């Protein structure tokens, strides 16, 4: 089987009809796939082999479970079946087996395997996969792709749809990432205590990148990709279970929950964008907000704050306010000051400028935005120009506002964002009628 085919393997369910047994397999597979794959990679040291025998184990489940019923420990059943199929495959290919044995020996020396679970439950070794998929040796786009493929359980076509690229392009990215992992001998292990502070931010960034694409898609007809945002939250929950003492993991999960809680109010029934000041806050997900607020407390307690914890605190201030006007803008600016000190970036400075405008007025905010005009990172970032347009509009500087809205319109990625900006622009600078319509 070639690398391109291997990247496409692992599609769990591909039948038109969804029988009860098939639905059970799909539910188990979606929940257990990451754990199953991580355990197999840990044992055999090869991601391609692990994906192939995982798929074969699922096929075996589809064959046997309708007759015998879903086992009491379905994950353990799948793991046992996949291990047997891997051993059979290695027996047939001695050269391949010798190479894997060498890789496995190196992995054992670097990170001895944990003892087997006495009751046969599937061991949870996904944390190793998180750090492997987010290894700094991989290109940033490849980290996101292989994390979605291996840990979120998305098929290659699903990952491709998430980022609006052809399946063949995404398959190449996944193949490239696997090849890099194999050739660079990237270890399947959790970094030691001395490495963890340096490596963990990369893992969190991958999950956050998945969420931001789901929260506001980079392009396409819809503002949100709720399926992708939900997968990011699921990944963050897994990390939270695996690293319960890491405050920034709690901060990331808090941030995702507090922002995702507004999902139902961010668009109207026709899919049009609804800004924060116009949203129906009764539609916000209050249980999700409460969970997020509890996590913020955990993220900020016990030491200096981290960037995700501070961003979560900012999101919590928005979620706690009855409306935009009653938001605690002085506290918001203070939190942005902390965030800017932790992660100096033009995007954070933009957020702070908007908060200052709400606290001190549009003129103060616009002055800060003018100071960011030379930042290259903001040149293709349409929220920067949209903010300039809004503040100029509030000051009555309509030509400046129109110019900023036009620039934002040219940069916006999704149709709801473009439609919103066209409405803003037309309100202050209506388009001229066609020449034939003039009298």
TrEMBL record:
Residues 199-299 form the DUF6596 domain. Keywords: Sigma factor, Transcription, Transcription regulation. The keyword Lyase does not apply. Signal peptide: none annotated. Gene3D superfamilies: 1.10.1740.10, Winged helix-like DNA-binding domain superfamily/Winged helix DNA-binding domain. It comes from Streptomyces buecherae. The keyword RNA-binding does not apply. Residues 133-181 form the RNA polymerase sigma factor 70 region 4 type domain. This is RNA polymerase sigma factor. Pfam families: DUF6596, Sigma70_r2, Sigma70_r4_2. GO terms for biological process: DNA-templated transcription initiation. It comes from the Bacteria. InterPro entries: DUF6596, RNA_pol_sigma70_r2, RNA_pol_sigma70_r4_t2, RNA_pol_sigma_r2, RNA_pol_sigma_r3/r4-like, WH-like_DNA-bd_sf. Residues 29-94 form the RNA polymerase sigma-70 region domain. Belongs to the sigma-70 factor family. ECF subfamily. GO terms for molecular function: DNA binding; sigma factor activity.
